[in-house]
Amino acid sequence: MKWYPEGYEVELQLLYRHFKSSLHLFRYQSALMPFSDLSLAKDLGDLAMFHAHITPFYPDKFANFPRQMR
Fold first, then answer.
1. Over 90: is that where the pLDDT of 46 sits?
2. pTM over 0.70
3. Which of the 8 DSSP states describes residue 55?
4. Helix (H), strand (E) at residue 52
5. Interatomic CA distance for residues 25 and 39, integer angstroms
6. CA–CA distance, 42 with 1 (Å, rounded to integer)
7. Where are the transmembrane segments (predicted)?
8. Sequence-separated (6 or more) residues with CB below 8 Å from residue 30
9. DSSP character for 36?
10. CA distances (Å), 23 to each of 5, 6, 13, 19, 62, in order?
11. Contact by Cβ (8 Å): 53, 46
12. Residues contacting residue 57 through CB under 8 Å, at least 6 positions apart
């Protein structure tokens, strides 16, 4: 994705939607039962790290990404 950003836009959109839904699920679960599912937290962390590395190559698509991590 870093070498050819235009060629991976469809996959990136899918991964970003997956990230946003995982973030929503994590927030919902942690409000109900804190520390209940650590595997969800690890998956969300992995997705966040991936998107943090890709953000510089897609500045228009990820302008709001840092704010979502609050």
1. yes
2. yes
3. G
4. helix 38-54
5. 12
6. 22
7. none
8. 36
9. S
10. 24, 26, 15, 6, 15
11. no
12. 1, 2, 5
